[in-house]
Records
---
Amino acid sequence: MNAKITASKSCQIDKIDRRIYGSFIEHLGRAVYNGIYEPTHKDTDDCGFRRDVLELIKQLNIPVVRYPGGNFVSGYNWEDGIGDKSKRPCKLDLAWLSVETNEVGIDEFQEWARRAGTDIMMAVNLGTRGPDEARNLIEYCNSSTSTYYANLRRQNGFAEPFGIKLWCLGNEMDGDWQICHKTAEEYGRVATETAKVLKWVDPSIELVACGSSDPNMPTYGEWERTVLDHTYDYVDYLSLHCYYGNKAKNTPDFLARAEDMDKFIKATADICDEIKAKKNSDKTINLSFDEWNIWYRTKDEEKTMQRWQIAPHLLEEKFNFEDALLVGCMLMTLQNNCDRVKIACLAQLVNVIAPIMTENDGPAWRQTIFYPYMYASLYGNGTTLKAVTESDSYRSSDGFDAPYLYSSVIHNDERKEVVVFAVNRSLTEDIELQIKLDGFDGYTLKEHIELYSDDINATNTIDNEKIKPQVRKIKGESPISLKKHSWNMLIFKY
Ligand code: AHR
């Protein structure tokens, strides 16, 4: 099959905010304990953080990590995780029916984030708690005053503020599974009042209000409108969450979920602008897609597992090759919507629905989705171009027109390169791709990285990394051959 991409230097979507390559670590399963933190492991640093995990995370060059939840945050008392570890309480975590030892809290996590070279996106508890505890937390984290919580941080050994710049006002408050779930009215009010006190303590921060936890929530749309009616003047971003799956084992439909994500983003941006118009505001609310991934095999596990374990094996989704293709497509959807999506978090990072897995007391390894995420983060920087794609398409059973060629084109002015990410969604045919780049004199294809497997269900395991990128030989300039069901990154230099 033939396909063509035409892009021009002057026809741009927007500059990519690197925070779209963020991730997420929740106190859930083995994400923290036996994930990033395992003091008894043979390869740990002086703080008990796993060095092998840190090394893999550094390969991903992650700009920001959301913490400490997720559903967990809606029952969390942040004070349980600071100061002398021997005095910290062990508590029931009602979100995941587990036991939280509190060995890791913000004291440790900010140190881990520094070592991982990433910023923190901090979530506050608007479930069991409210503005008071949130303002104490931000004083503890960010204040240099000589006041109780800032002094408590100093007593705990941290003279300098942590300087956390991005804050989430709760998590998925629209969902009845959430501890102390709220109506849109109730949430809109408490989010507004919490936003006010947080920004009074530190005016330099940015705030994310909770949007819907899934586009199929019955309250989707009305939730956003009501929440924004209350919070519009006080927050900077509205969140979106979405997880996709392939229970029906229909790969073409599954790969077309990237279109669904695109629709969700555009519809939510339209709602933000509707409220902007209603309020006659000059301010634009942008989007934070702060939970996205593939997750269906291990959903609702906590309901059937043995309750009240410490660091149980929970939500340890084993990703296959088709999952890597969709994750690649979803990253392109984020890049192609970079005019509105300024933050996004692959949920999650270690062990829990994650690109990185660990064995307790054993090695760490990469799942199939690690690579499209890594290449997007390393090479998807600069300005997304508004490319025109000509490709045959198919119709998914839920009505999306899905071109076989799914792509994004990014111009990196500093590196004098144009990077094309492309997935061939055909299960049977290779694509012969022509690429025309206007305004890039003498552009030549320098690198073609491919992720391919004959077996769409192939997975990586602890001792066999079957799915890993290959460097393709560059034969001639054009057309470029993209194998059936493959992910590709093409780097042009000019
Ligand atoms: O990422 C796993 C869970 O998914 C999060 O805790 C919650 O916010 C979402 O429902």
---
Amino acid sequence: MSSTTKLAVPNVVLQSSFSMPVIGFGTASETNDGDTVKAAAIEAIKLGYRHFDTASCYGSEQALGEAIAEALKLGLISSRDQLFITSKLWLSDNHPHLVLPALQKSLQNLGLEYLDLYLVHFPMSAKPEVRKFYHKEDELVPFDLKGVWASMEQCHNLGLTKSIGVSNFSTKKLEDLLSFATIPPAVNQVELNLSWQQKNLREYCKAKGIMVTAYSPLGAGGTSWGSNDVMESELLKDIAHVHGKSIAQVSLRWLYEQGVTFAVKSYNKERMKQNLEIFNFSLTNNDYQKINQIKQERKVKNGPAGFDLADLLWDGEN
Ligand code: NAP
């Protein structure tokens, strides 16, 4: 494939009526430096990625914004509307009066006038003055979901984001949100991969018209929050071998066949390309029998808290 050949990625239509490309390009990394993120995002646009996942806490918004500006300048895209950009509200801004300024700051970082999707990153709030990735127990404060969601709706009504949604929400928290939301969440972005398949949550979201976006779709090997369970699975190695595909491609294909969208992170050109090449094979019943045997274990146990918070965060859900 020449560097200018793009792969077409299918879209899904969200309940907000906007289209979202099934494959998103993740930008969370513990070693995010601006030049690397910018170069990777430009390469991603060349390869055909149109959906980009960032967050105020990733430190990637500015570099992604520079990549978008460069892609426009180079003519890789003719307009910003050809991209689907997601960002997220961090814990320290998870307060009703801080939502709008936080979104405005993200837009400023990205150099954009609107987002396609703005997500409440976690159903947790931290003291506004404490901005960091992992929080201690005494830095967290009660989360006002109703007030925060009203502010998210205001952001949508102001035209600053086309869709609004949540991330890391259990069915219990979604049920609570749906009981008062004027605008229902278009998306719930959660950990979802072959070793954390989240069947109940997926079925609940489908019934409510909420699109699931899988994060850590390969299990996030090599990060402090992930594991090698997926990428080192012997069962998946066998399936991949039969199809002449990689474990990553089998994992992403499985997500696609479940009708969900996903954000996958690679800053390596070959792996970025590989992660798009999932539309020319299908998993068989035999593959599904093996997939059903994979041991299930959540990797992101305590979210951005350095203490045992699992019950509070996930409501005992599996
Ligand atoms: P991931 O995409 O499952 O895994 C990323 C890791 O897999 C990286 O180490 C990457 O290394 C490697 N990789 C990627 N493609 C590969 C391939 N084809 N073969 C072998 N290795 C491959 O994990 P993630 O970064 O946690 O999740 C993806 C995105 O979801 C994030 O970047 C972020 O945008 C989002 N996310 C959201 C939340 C949330 O709370 N909402 C939490 C976590 C992540 P190389 O870069 O070296 O290829």
